[in-house]
Amino acid sequence: MQIESNELRAGHRLATEAEMVQRFGVSRTVVREALSRLQAAGLVETRHGIGTFVCEAGASPLLQLDPADVAGSIDALAILELRISLETESAGLAAMRCDASRLATMRAALADFTQSVGTSTDTVSPDLRFHMEIAHATGNRYFVEIMEHLGTRMIPRTRITATPIPRDQNAEYLMRVNREHEQIADAIERGDADSARTAMRLHLINSRERLRRAQGNGT
C-alpha cells in the first residue's frame, strides 16, 4: 500500500475519484468504499471541496474495547447495519425536502457538537439531534418514529465503555466524526440528494469500521 510504504506521505493529496476510477478500472462506488475504509482507519481525511489527504502517522486514535464490552459492540454493529440502509435514504429525502429552518437546527446541532468537544462535555446529545433533524426533514413520520425508538442506542459510543484515550486524541477523533456530519449537512443544503446519500453512507460505514477495528484491537 502506498501510504504504508511512505510513497504517499502525510499531507499528500490523493487522486480524485474520477482519476482513481480511470486508473484502476473500477466503479466510483468501489473507490468510495475504499476511501471510506481508509478514513475509518485514520489514514486519510477528506476536506470538503478540496480533496482527500494522507493523515499524520498515528494521528488517529483507535478505540480499544475492554473484553466486557464485546456484547455491547456487537449490538452496536447490528444497529449500524440498520442505520446504513435507513439513514442513507433519509439523507437523500432530506436534501429534496429540507427547508431553511430545519437546516438551521442541523447546523446548530453541529455547532453544539464542536463546542462540546472543546469543553470535554457530552457530544452524544448534539450527535443524536443532528440525525433526528435529518429524519424530521424527510417529512415522513415513520423515519422519525424508528429513530426515536432507537434513541441514544444509535450512537455507537453509548453502547460500549472504551479504554480511555488521551484527551487531545479523543477530541481529534470526535472532530473527524463531526466533519463527516458537516459533509452530510453541506450536501443537504445544496439540495444534492445523491451526494447526501453518499455522505451519510460513508459516515455510517466509517462508524462501523471504527468499531470493528476497536473490536480487533481489544481481543
UniProtKB/TrEMBL annotation:
Listed GO MF terms: DNA binding; DNA-binding transcription factor activity
Residue stretches making up the HTH gntR-type domain: 1-57
Keyword annotations from UniProtKB, A to Z: DNA-binding, Transcription, Transcription regulation
One Pfam family hit: GntR
UniProt-listed InterPro entries: GntR_C, TF_FadR/GntR_C, Tscrpt_reg_HTH_GntR, WH-like_DNA-bd_sf, WH_DNA-bd_sf
Protein's UniProt keywords contain Amino-acid biosynthesis: no
Record keyword Ribonucleoprotein present: no
UniProt protein name: GntR family transcriptional regulator
Species lineage: Bacteria, Pseudomonadati, Pseudomonadota, Betaproteobacteria, Burkholderiales
